[in-house]
Design brief:
Distance between the termini: 30 Å
Strand content: under 5%
Structural class: mainly alpha
Number of helices: 3
Oligomer: single chain
Number of domains: 1
Amino acid sequence: MNRCTQPGCAGGIDADGFCDVCDPESILADPDLTAILDLDRPVGVLLFSVLHCVSDDDLVR
């Protein structure tokens, strides 16, 4: 996890492939994430190289 203490600073969390991108609520509820992000403020979520790992059935949901 990259922590940032300055307002407007970017940080990141590397889930090491152990999160379900089809369940974004579980990602956003992760204690490591909520410890550094205030989800009551605007937040950008970038998911790189994940769409090819999602099954066609999950894409339809």
